[in-house]
UniProtKB/TrEMBL annotation:
Key word Repressor present: no
Keywords for this protein: Coiled coil
Residue intervals of the Sporulation stage II protein D amidase enhancer LytB N-terminal domain: 308-383
One Pfam assignment: SpoIID
Coiled-coil annotated residue ranges, if any: 31-79, 149-179
Protein name: Sporulation stage II protein D amidase enhancer LytB N-terminal domain-containing protein
Length: 574
């Protein structure tokens, strides 16, 4: 068993080292290179954890066995001492019984000598019957004493045998204990090494994931998705109403649009309509906060506008429609004021005027927005003594995330939660219960082609191609540079393999490719709002993929600018 475990660990070590150190070509597109490395790292980490788990169980069993063996050895040692004492006492008893028997034998010898022929004639004058009876008694006593001595001898012999057996068992147990100790030390060392290796992998994955998020954000720019409502009304087309002209058709619908951290603007709209006041709303989206007042006339620097009084600046922020409920506007006012103070470090630096910060147009927006600013005069949110950097965005799709989830740097006031009126059992529940369900971008397909009704619908064979690309990349990471979308120049400067070439490459590796897709099923975490896995059915049977893995390769291969833009998505069929 130990040798087998050594082989498992050695194999895993070689696999992980190979996946980390194998020479790869330098790709022009850093994202694809990082995604490939990340997949390799995660696979190595999963394999290492899978192999470590049984070792930890074996170590636990060995440690338990060691404890049991030690208890047995201690008990045997005590038993040996008892047996040694009993043998010593038995030997003393044997000496005493032997002495007594000797005395009786001499006595009966004397008595028996009285019965020779000469003395027998002399004794005839005595009571012959009495003499014979005394002689018989003496002889019987000697026989009894002899039997006792035999029993004592056998008892002592039995004790000596038991003592010897105990000593042999003690020696055997000591040997087993040593072997178990050696195995336990080996396993502990291997587990410690594996844990250290896993920590290193996890650290590498975390670092790559942060960089990956940065590069994915750059790719999302081609969609020109607004971060917040400051960019104007949201334009998300409901592709379910569009007919691409072919069937079956598949499209990826994402819940919400980036970035899903902090105040959900459409969520504030829904919560205010449900009767929540602005503090209820802000406490829902930021945790551990207190409300404090800052000087509304303190100066902050605004790019292109010079210095402005804090609340005068706030009057020119255009981040929420003026006709929205007042409590939603007040929540936005406090969030915007807090963001401005935190971003400028209490006025020491400048704040930009675009949605990269928050949209500022100058002047006074007036209306209910002016009332919201005045009703919350100087009010900010504070977390652990510091004004919070109160991020916000238009639409979260029913779930909020921490800053660490999205950007890799966690702030304690951000929270991960389901932003609904109750529990959620499925996608239909989410559509009915999410506070931001009235946003046109709550559930939308992102990207389109000029043909097919300018929709994001994909043909069955196009989805099959995306699946085949993922299968090929998982089978051979060295093919990655050839798997970009076919309708754009290859970012790596090499030839892009079309659908037929990808199929042939799969066949060459003994993998049956998909020609068409018939069904797609999503398994998702209803408490966290993320896709766990996606199961594809089609001409080659069924294949399952990790939700993030599928999303990344979908975005790599899908035509035009069609993309999945969040952690929770669904694949619809029409």
């Amino acid at each position: 068993m130990l040798n087998k475990l050594k082989i498992i660990f050695f194999s895993l070590f070689l696999i992980s080292i190979y996946s980390l150190l194998i020479t790869r070509p330098v790709f022009a597109d850093e994202l694809e290179d990082i995604e490939k490395k990340l997949i390799d790292l995660k696979r190595a980490l999963q394999m290492s954890i899978a192999a470590t788990s049984p070792l930890e169980k074996n170590l636990s069993t060995l440690q338990k066995n060691l404890s049991e063996i030690q208890v047995k050895i201690t008990a045997i040692e005590k038993d040996v001492v008892v047996k040694e004492r009993e043998v010593a006492e038995g030997e003393k008893l044997l000496i005493l019984a032997t002495d007594l028997l000797g005395q009786k034998v001499r006595k009966i010898y004397v008595s028996s000598s009285q019965f020779n022929t000469t003395k027998l004639l002399l004794l005839l004058g005595k009571n012959l019957a009495l003499s014979l009876r005394e002689y018989s008694y003496q002889k019987k006593a000697i026989e009894n004493d002899r039997d006792t001595i035999v029993k004592v001898v056998l008892y002592i012999k039995d004790l000596e045998n038991k003592k010897k057996a105990l000593e042999n068992e003690k020696v055997r147990l000591a040997f087993v204990k040593k072997e178990t100790d050696d195995q336990a030390r080996f396993l502990a060392k291997e587990i410690a090494g594996a844990k250290k290796y896993q920590t290193t992998l996890a650290s590498s994955i975390a670092q790559l994931s942060a960089r990956q998020q940065q590069l994915l954000a750059q790719k999302l720019e081609s969609l020109h998705l607004p971060t917040s409502l400051g960019a104007g009304p949201l334009y998300c087309t409901d592709d379910r109403k569009l007919d691409p002209g072919f069937s079956p058709a598949f499209a990826a619908f994402t819940y919400g649009i980036p970035h899903r951290v902090g105040l959900n603007q459409y969520g504030a709209y829904g919560r205010s309509k449900a009767g929540q006041n602005y503090k209820d709303i802000l406490n829902a989206y930021y945790q551990g906060i207190n409300f404090e007042t800052r000087d509304p006339n303190m100066k902050i620097k605004v790019v292109g506008f010079g210095e402005k009084n804090l609340d005068d600046y706030l009057l020119g922020v255009y981040e929420m429609p003026n006709d929205w409920p007042l409590e939603a506007l007040k929540a936005q006012a406090v969030a915007a004021r807090s963001y401005a103070l935190s971003y400028t470090n209490n006025g020491q630096s400048e704040i930009c005027t675009t949605q990269a910060c928050q949209v500022y147009k100058g002047g006074n927006k007036g209306g209910n927005w002016e009332k919201a600013v005045n009703d919350t005069k100087g009010e900010v949110m504070v977390f652990q003594g510091q004004v919070v950097k109160a991020w916000y965005a238009s639409t979260f799709g029913g779930y909020t995330f921490t800053s660490g989830d999205v950007w890799g740097s966690d702030r304690g006031f951000t929270r991960r939660m389901r932003d609904t009126t109750g529990t959620v059992d499925g996608f239909s529940d989410l559509a009915e219960k999410s506070y931001d369900r009235e946003s046109p971008c709550f559930y939308a397909a992102q990207g389109f082609r000029t043909e097919y009704a300018k929709s994001s619908w994909l043909k069955s064979e196009e989805v099959a191609d995306i699946v085949n690309v993922l299968l090929l990349a998982k089978s051979d990471s060295g093919t990655q540079s050839h798997l970009a979308q076919v309708d754009k120049p290859n970012p790596d400067g090499v030839d892009t393999w079309d659908a037929n070439r990808v199929k042939n490459e799969l066949r060459n590796r003994g993998i049956n490719p998909f020609n068409s897709i018939s069904d797609v099923n999503i398994d998702w975490d209803k408490s966290q709002g993320t896709v766990n896995s996606i199961n594809i059915s089609g001409s080659a049977g069924s294949s399952s993929f990790n939700g993030t893995e599928f999303k990344n390769f979908f975005n790599l291969r899908a035509p035009a600018n069609i993309q999945i833009v969040g952690p929770l998505y669904n694949i619809e069929r029409k």
